[in-house]
Amino acid sequence: MSLSVKDQEVGGVTIVRAEGRLTLSDSNGALKNAINSLVEAGRARFVLNLEGVPYVDSSGLGEIASAHVTVSRTGGQLLLAAVPDRVMEALTITKLTRVLSALPDEKSAVAKLQGAT
């Protein structure tokens, strides 16, 4: 199942919804390319909704970390939302939860970013 990435702007926050396996063979850099394009377009506040991502491998974890770095370097913020248990387990094992914040759902992540200036 190839990864698809769609974005939507909601009140100054860009929601990026990923769907499919976030792996070396399935993503082909789709997440990285989408985030890079959005940052180049001037977007700064992101919610990465991973609800539709059932599995992530080390390459996929790298793409998530890369998205965080890309956004942070421009002074932006990226929050994860609706992270499936299996993906959260991978983020926890690799200690990425120390630098990435995850909220239970998209709505709460958007609200948190809208409250940030």
Topology overview:
Blueprint: E1 4-10, E2 13-19, H1 24-27, H2 30-40, E3 45-52, H3 58-73, E4 77-81, H4 85-93, E5 101-103, H5 106-115
Parallel strand pairs: 2-3, 3-4, 4-5
Antiparallel strand pairs: 1-2
Quick rundown:
The protein is an alpha/beta fold and 117 residues long.
For the termini, the CA-CA separation is 37 Å
Element order: H for helix, E for strand = EEHHEHEHEH
Number of strands: 5
Specify the overall morphology: globular
Structure classification? alpha/beta
The residue-averaged pLDDT reads: 95
Q: Approximately how much helix is present in the residues?
A: 40-55%
Radius of gyration: 13 Å
Given as residue ranges, the uncertain stretches (5+ residues, pLDDT < 50) are none
Strand order of the largest sheet: 1-2-3-4-5
Please summarize the sheet with the most strands. Answer: 5 strands, mixed
